[in-house]
Amino acid sequence: DIKDRKSMQEIKSSLENPKSEDEVLENLYMLNLMLDEGNKDVVELYPTLSKYNDTNSPNIQTYLAGIYRKIKVPDAFGPLCAMLIRNSINPPKDCPFDPNEEIGGAILDYLA
Q1: How confident is the model at residue 6 (pLDDT cuts 50, 70, 90)?
Q2: Looking at the predicted structure, is the pLDDT value of residue 3 above 70?
Q3: What is the largest CA-CA distance in the chain?
Q4: CA dihedral in degrees (5, 7, 8, 12; nearest 10)?
Q5: I need a labelling partner for 58 at 20 to 30 A (CA). Which of 13, 29, 85, 95 fits?
Q6: Residue 2 pLDDT > 70
Q7: HSE, side-chain direction, 13 A CA sphere, residue 55
Q8: Closest among 30, 32, 16, 23 to 70, alpha carbons compared
Q9: What is the pTM of this model?
Q10: Whole-angstrom distance between the N-terminal and C-terminal Cα of the chain?
């Protein structure tokens, strides 16, 4: 619901000090929606988003890859490759989906 949306500053603050993975996912979901609606300011949150580049959470990886695919910040290319390599060496367990599909797709979009 649009009235329940957080501002960019609220999302940034929440991502800097999250209480749970669910809170991170909620914020990444909102950023993804903002990008789909044409918000170009999401790119400014890359320094905050990059805090999660080393995560092993397939959920966070998938959202990050989707966001990076849309904002195409050059600095995100290396972390995407690192995620893919990490997941190839140690595949996520008990995950009903493969985050490498989104990560690989983002990498391909960078290379296109």
Answers
A1: confident
A2: no
A3: 43
A4: -90
A5: 13
A6: no
A7: 19
A8: 32
A9: 0.91
A10: 35
**φ/ψ (deg, to 5) at 88:** -70, -35
* Other Cβ atoms within 10 Å of 83 Cβ, number: 28
Structure tokens at 1: 């619901």
Token representation of residue 38 = 């044409």
d(CA 80, CA 102): 10
* 30, two tokens: 């909102």
Residue 35 has pLDDT above 80, yes or no: yes
Cβ-based neighbours of 23, under 8 Å, separated by 6 or more: 14
